[in-house]
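ok so for the tutorial part 2 we go from a plain amino acid sequence to predicted structure tokens. step 1 is just haveing the sequence, like this:
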Amino acid sequence: MTAGVRVDPGPAVSSGVPLRVPDERPLGLGEFPLAAGPLSPLEPNPSAGLACPTTGGRMNAARRVVRLGSGLTPEDVADVAIGHAVVEVDRAAVEARLAAARALVKDALEAGVPTYGLNRGLGPLRNSEIPPELIGDFQRYVIVSHAAAIGSPLSRIEGRAALLARLNTLAAGASGASAGLFDGLLALLQHDVIPAIPDQGSVGAGDLSQLASIGQVLLGAGRAWLPGRDQMAPGDEALAAAGLEPLRLEAKDSLALVGSNALSVATASLTQRRATLVAERADLVAALTIEALGANLSPFDEAALAARPHPGQQASGRRVRAAVAGGDLAEGRRTATSLQDAVSLRTIPQVHGALLDQLDQLEQLLTVELNCAPDNPYLDVERGVFVSNGNFSITGLAVGFDALRIALAHQALLAERRVALLVTQLRQGRTLADQVQAVTVATGYVTPVILAQTASTLVAQAKHLASPISLTGTTVGDGVEDHSSMAYPSVRVTEQVLDVVEQLLAIEALLAATVISVHHGRETVLGAPVERLRAAIIEATGRTRVTAEVIDWVIEALRREQRGDDLAEMRAPRVPPPVTIHDQEVGRHDQLH
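step 2 — the prediction. this is what the tokens look like for a chain of 593 residues:
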């Protein structure tokens, strides 16, 4: 089996340009040799067991198989990107669709029918004719002239996701891409030659500049991550390291590559998946706080939540009930401290549920985007025509992520208020003399109650980052492209909000575990999931006395406890080595000098 990709040759198809199957015929100029064997961390030696190719830790399940050209989901994208799934290609079906569309491209060229991006230019030059003898050169021109992305390179995980997303939509056969382009992108994914895609450039009306970075690597230019390594090299060197050669693009290939929002959709899929996991952790942390404060469980009553049957609020309530089940509070062996608690406790199912509902909507939207034909022009094979259209616009995705950030900010607001309640509980439960003595004689970590101020800073950031971005686009393309969704920036800012929310949840969880240790001790029985989380947090606090590192450890413990991973595999917080710190100081010096 090739690295990370399982190929089903299928029956031979004679129409159009055939997809290349390894060892069936000699390779043509610019084609990628598909070597057999495990060359990529996407699929190490199958005999190596359930080792995660990203972290090296033990996986909880065998790798899944994701079939290219079918119903790709955000979870599929995430699993392939991190190496928890391998890709299977139905070669016969994909070949047939590509060949049928490619026949239209050939007919249009021979008939001289004016066609956008084929024998006519792009954007403001849409009416300019491309002479037949320059169509080959035009492919390289499009890639080079659109490679305008700047900034830090995205991770290999994000690069793999982008390759997968574009491969899946190309497999629909509505772009007119050649079999060589499809094979070339597949080979990059297969051999883990991941283009270094700069993080700035897309306005959400086609990820033109960033997808051109992928095109550069296909041509042997640009930069790419070396196979299985956190090291970049020029495109031709990265290809050579995997035994690959530069590709020669055919007519329509350049537009078929850059004229989509594959990067926006791919990163959105990763962000939606991450947000879904954070939302699950939020319910678990809230349950820990409920146990710490002895809160009333009536707001989580199943019948009461079903009386207003939003799916999200019912799911959130169900998770909290499961987390506290079997504990003294849930079994009535411990009386709630108040008849009715603060709104930040009472409305957990409603506020957390609003986030869950938004995530469900985004999953549906992304599933459409991952499996559609987003190209302009659209090749309608049945009618045999090219259709100019606006399917490149992903305004729905941009608006959806604007809404997601608002929902996350509301969750952050609740977490910050619960932090304040926990701090009050800590202060009220111990005299100043007790607190001073605890610090004086402590041999371990002492949780600082001033974390409430840190939480206040974080929630302010979440509120600021929740501002809509989809309304901020400007006119580009010499006035032709006079609307853009700003979907990609909306997705990227959402990642920043998720960072903030994870930090807030870690602060809340740390304080809740501390309250339980101070006020309840071992005599109080907690729900099993809550007790596991409490124990994981206490274990994490024993690793360092530096609060910033404690919070990083708690974030790691939250992630692993949710997945059921072995806490012994927790990785230390990432501390930059001195050379990196020096480089940062030099960079800052250059900004100020």
